[in-house]
Amino acid sequence: MSKYIMKKLIDQSVLNEGLTVPIKKYQVLLDGLGITLQKGEKQNIKVWLKGIEYQAVIKFVDLKGKNSQRTVIQIKYSTLNPLCQALNSIFSYSANDIAKRKEELSGEKKKLSVKDEYIDIYANDDKTLEFICHCKQVDDFGGEMQDSFLEPEIQKEDIVKTEIDQEELFHDVEESEDMLENGEIEENWDTKEILSRIKSYISSKGFCYEDGLIENFYLSLKSKPFVILAGVSGTGKTRLVKLFAEAIGAKYKMVPVRPDWSDSSDIFGHINLNGEFVPGAITQYVYEAAQNLRTPYMLCLDEMNLARVEYYMSDILSVMESRDFGENRKIRTAPLITKEQCGSKLDGHKYADMCFPENLYIIGTVNMDETTFPFSRKVLDRANTIEFSNVDLKSPFEESVVSFDGKVERVGNSFLKTQYLILQEDCVEEAEVVGVYCSELQSINRILQTANAHVGYRVRDEFIFYLLNNKNADFLLSDTEAIDNEIMQKILPRIQGSGIVIKEMLIKLFQYCVGSYDIMQAGQTDLVKQMLKRARDSDCKYKKSAEKITFMVRRLEEDGFTSYWF
Asked: How far is it, in rounded angstroms, from Cα 476 to Cα 222?
């Protein structure tokens, strides 16, 4: 027998991700479903909607920090879930109205709902909910038709309860949705499914990247909002950023770096001779991101090393290191622009004390040739450097065109927002696996120490964050692949120099990556040939890193100097 639970107005959350249950309805709902939940647990449930069965999840959210004692239960489904798509179709009036008002608000933070459309929710004891929809109808010309609702058969006492519960609902849900908006309540993303659709979208645009690259790019962004894409010109670095942003419904801006950029005023602005603040190349974009924290903003700095990165990005690099979690797990930073930098005129004051927004992701594309500057360790330590070296020049018409339904996956910022900022504070629950990953990095660091190339705490933390994000996403990559990526992206780019000490260190690092300590010596004439053969063996542990080290050793033998860069 169905049991009436609650009424829910149609708002942004219902049309995108699910709903939070009012506190007074927790036990009624769980009893109605015939289940029990402990903190951090979730169970699959069924939802009947207009005679069709859908899948959803009920979750007892495990809050962190000062809200750890609070109780929050949510009914969740992703935007890819057919249930979400069906609700958007049924409540098209609300979807269109909310989208229109959201555009008019231009990023202003305000909850949007439609008072005349709602759902009555019933529960059965076999883990099943039933949604009874009350929706407006529109005529053939898009005009609103009043008093045309789909009304269910409800007992009078249930109607009284509905009116009371609606007031309770807003009292309890608004606070929980504030936490969801600020990133404290984790959204129920199926990361593998979303990334699969992202890859399909990118392929449908005629671009094909090597296996694991999209997953690597996602994990790098999730671990640190600063990623460097390196490779020869024309390999699709800039296009990857644009297509990835389009595929998740993120904002995108490409800014070509100018060779004459020499300090942060070139990107953040300066005061002119009249005392007026003149915004820089990215000032307005960063400001807009700060006004719309639920949407990811992706900033592509094209050919970022045409100028010295550590000069014009010095403020960003420093402020990025000041990030910590504040109230409701919102990420705080030191200001990028102070009031003094805005001058005395009113025009610049809206940018005063602007911080690094938690939804801003900076991706730099680089070509390493005679026209560009090398990177300092200050820059490399703060980024994941992804190399584009494999290029397949076969005809694009040899493979069939990937079909795509045209619907981009509009994810919220929680899809990319990091869960980890400080290893000792944010990874307590993962202490055991952190110990395993740290042990691996320590073994590598002992080898690096022989040439004074060892890494510090910052690299350690970001190395671990990448691996934890991979684990939390149900292992997008195997542990071995993930560690291989991080050796390539956090360790090898820092290595450069000449002499026997560097060569012997590279050989030891190579031996560690292939998983065997054989008799290779630095003086062997066929050393590179032997290394390349071993790196391509099927049992090589970290294949990409081993091949890259082979390239670095060959360059050292031929030129007397080596570096990661081609």
From this structure: 13
